């Protein structure tokens, strides 16, 4: 209880400090007629934003098959008046809104195109009461739409930032997409100074009026481990090492491992398969497992123990029957870097300050696994923020979205963008250049 209270008091103190740190910046921004008009437009056009969100959600976009949605999104960016738009070699849609200063920072606003759903999934959105149900309606049709809403408000109110703003729709964020889109973005571009991902919504499980911002990256490694033995008939070849038995030994050993609680580090064997018949000694078996941590070193240490346990299991199964070890092969399926972000980083404190300037409670900084993992892993300032409204059941056919005060998401993103990138006539950018 003491630790919990200390954490709560520390957060309250941090939130108050974050809100006051940039108070002068947001006071200046909020006093500008063009900024006021842009914020009012976002709220006034809340229903338009929702309609566009539904339209985007109803375009299928499974990971590695995002092309149709990407083409539609590129069209929408063109219609908003941007001319420097391209699709890169990985499939990301990248649009540059140039700043007024050659010395300004480059800020990325991103949302991901892909969903976890198969190509034949029904993505039609239906309304039930105040909720909109649809596969991908929140994750991440909401984020994609918020980027367009913010861009529209900047264009129509002639808000010129000092730094460049890149509007990026990424591919491959979900699952075994392995963050391939954002990895390609940072592989190909060395001019990015800050990164904001808009992914999902606020949670209905939080008390009313409370929200979160992802300021730290939970890294993950996902492995497939294959066990291969000689196989044989269960009676005639009894005494032959079994791939399934070797896998069972591995799972038992892995389940007994102790993972650190601080930094939080987790593991799970999530999928298993193997064998061909009930009366056959299994020739092959496979398991898939997920390892996660906020710390790259803690993740690596636990991973080393897990992989060693799998190797021992193959050897022990062979030794049990006086035979050669069961062969153990491993394949890395996913690699998401852990990040060194912090709850009091420039990006997090700016987002918190923006939401406080809008009359909201300070968002709680948390850890998560999103596109922001990549820049955080590279030491580049980044956060992942809510697109506004509430939603739940992501990654399921029961996913839903409810536009409760939904305009606050794009309003917060607009203010944060203007504060970080600076605005013509001041205030100056909060985000420093890295180059």
Automatic annotation (TrEMBL):
UniProt keyword annotation of Hydrolase present: yes
Record has Hydrolase as a keyword: yes
Coiled coil: none
GO MF annotation, one: hydrolase activity
Keyword list, A-Z: Cobalt, Hydrolase, Metal-binding, Signal
Cross-referenced Pfam families: M20_dimer, Peptidase_M20
Signal peptide as annotated in the record: 1-15
Domain Peptidase M20 dimerisation: 219-315
PANTHER family the UniProt entry points to: ACETYLORNITHINE DEACETYLASE, PEPTIDASE M20
Protein name: Aminoacyl-histidine dipeptidase
Taxonomic placement: Bacteria, Pseudomonadati, Pseudomonadota, Gammaproteobacteria, Steroidobacterales
């Amino acid at each position: 209880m003491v630790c919990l209270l200390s954490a709560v008091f520390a957060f309250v103190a941090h939130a108050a400090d974050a809100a006051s740190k940039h108070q002068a910046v947001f006071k200046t921004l909020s006093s500008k007629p063009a900024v006021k008009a842009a914020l009012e437009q976002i709220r006034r056009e809340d229903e338009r934003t929702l309609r566009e969100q539904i339209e985007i959600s109803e375009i299928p976009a499974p990971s590695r098959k995002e092309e149709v949605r990407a083409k539609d999104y590129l069209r929408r960016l063109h219609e908003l008046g941007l001319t420097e738009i391209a699709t890169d070699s990985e499939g990301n849609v990248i649009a540059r809104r140039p700043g007024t200063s050659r010395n300004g920072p480059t800020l990325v606003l991103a949302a991901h195109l892909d969903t976890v759903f198969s190509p034949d999934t029904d993505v039609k959105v239906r309304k039930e009461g105040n909720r909109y149900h649809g596969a991908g309606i929140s994750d991440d049709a909401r984020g994609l739409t918020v980027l367009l809403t913010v861009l529209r408000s900047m264009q129509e109110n002639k808000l010129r930032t000092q730094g460049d703003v890149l509007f990026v729709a990424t591919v491959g964020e979900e699952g075994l997409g392995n963050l391939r889109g954002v990895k390609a973005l940072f592989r190909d571009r060395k001019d990015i100074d800050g990164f904001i991902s808009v992914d999902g919504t606020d949670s209905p499980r939080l008390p009313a009026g409370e929200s979160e911002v992802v300021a730290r990256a939970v890294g993950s490694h996902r492995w497939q481990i294959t066990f291969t033995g000689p196989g044989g008939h269960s009676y005639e070849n009894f005494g032959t090492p079994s791939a399934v038995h070797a896998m069972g030994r591995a799972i038992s050993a892995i389940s007994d491992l102790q993972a650190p609680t601080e930094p939080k580090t987790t593991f799970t064997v999530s999928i298993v398969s193997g064998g061909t018949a009930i009366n056959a000694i299994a020739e092959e078996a496979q398991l898939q497992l997920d390892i996660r941590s906020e710390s790259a070193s803690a993740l690596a240490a636990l991973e080393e123990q897990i992989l060693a346990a799998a190797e021992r299991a193959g050897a022990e199964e062979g030794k049990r029957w006086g035979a050669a070890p069961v062969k153990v092969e491993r394949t890395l399926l996913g690699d998401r870097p852990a990040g060194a972000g912090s709850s009091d980083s420039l990006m997090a404190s700016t987002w918190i300050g923006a939401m406080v300037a809008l009359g909201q409670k300070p968002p709680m900084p948390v850890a998560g696994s999103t596109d922001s993992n990549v820049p955080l892993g590279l030491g580049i300032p980044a956060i992942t923020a809510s697109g506004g409204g509430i939603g739940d059941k992501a990654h399921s056919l029961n996913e839903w979205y409810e536009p409760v005060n939904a305009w606050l998401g794009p309003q917060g993103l607009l203010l944060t963008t203007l504060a970080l990138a600076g605005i013509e006539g001041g205030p100056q950018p909060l985000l420093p250049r890295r180059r």
